[in-house]
Amino acid sequence: MKTILLIGAGKSATVLIDYLIKESEANNWKFIIADSNRDLILTKTNHSPFAEAVQLDVINDEQRSKLIQRAHVVISMMPPALHFLVAKDCVEYRKHLLTASYLDDKIRSLQDEINDRKLFFLCEMGLDPGIDHMSAMKIIDEIKATGGKITSFKSHCGGLVAPESDDNPWHYKISWNPRNIVMAGQSGAVYKENNEIKNVSYQQLFDVSNGIVYAGLDSLAFYPNRDSLSYISTYKLPDTATFIRTTLRHIDFFKGWNAVVHAGLTNETDTVNTKGLTFKKWSEPVNHFVTAENEAMLRFLGLFEETPVPASAKSSADILQHLVETRLGMHSGDKDMIVMLHEFVYNLDGEPHSIQSCLVAKGEDSLRTAMAKTVGLPLGIAAKFILDGTLQLKGLHIPTSREIYEPVLKELESAGIRFTETRN
Length: 424
Description:
This protein is of the alpha/beta class. It has a domain at 3-128 and 371-417: 3-Layer(aba) Sandwich (Rossmann fold). 34% of the residues lie in helices and 23% in strands. α1 runs parallel beside α15.
């Protein structure tokens, strides 16, 4: 019996689990879900007979290897640092592997073995990265096929709160890993604009609100993501004058988060003595950055309260994460929203043209979120296509080739994840 193994049943796995239970029932496949918390798995499977829940300590070599040997396709939803443990076993036992995380040097070091053993490893198969690659490459390939030359490419994506659930001054709620929110942008960013390389430091990243010009998205702004330049060759756009990948937030978010960053409250390398420490005392550096525009936001986050910080906190980042989770968490009836916008400018027959391609997706509730849907479904669809023979590629990939993006985007459309294009 063909078997899919999912390792990790956290926030982003909920819709993926729903999808693979349904496909396993329809195709008579076996679906195994492994996590350190077996009870968490059972809450998401509703004790379905088509899903086997297994408690797993992923760093236990014996437990992990025995489980991977049972599978044909493995999906790792673990934190990125743990993917390599899973990947090594997948190579050893000749199993295909899917992840939603960025392809890193450790996984790249396995490329020769992946090729030699005719395996298919697909990384960056989530939302961003993932759906962004597929939807962008589809348009890039179409423009090139007509003889067009792309001069500017901008790709924006953000996990946001849906307007009907937007009830706080940050206009933001957490729908994914809260630690990633706290640490976002710490490495700064580099991108290409008008044939110039732009380097932006962490302290500068949230200084300027770059507004989005698109109907219905007037309240959103972006900050550049990490290293956009590394994707120029991936997207095969070496001569493009502007190339940038960004993260979207409500424009007001920048006003508050900029103060938090400049105050050093995201620091995870400092050592905090929590004995007798209150949030107000800990956050004193932020007082230098309080303005009329952000005071309500910082107060809502709890920075000025006289209550004790968590005794378990080791760093400022730990304390901030606690506040973000408690003050910006989603309630049971809340809905999140994903917005992705690609902006192309290209020349064709001597004339300038533009394309804006936009995805807006809303979650059902705080469990089956838009984030869980857009991160999980590409992985589930790819796993299905490997087992049913639709995907027959071998080697180490991210989803930029037509063989991957065409069938996956088609199925995503049937699940309601579709883009709207505006062409000029």
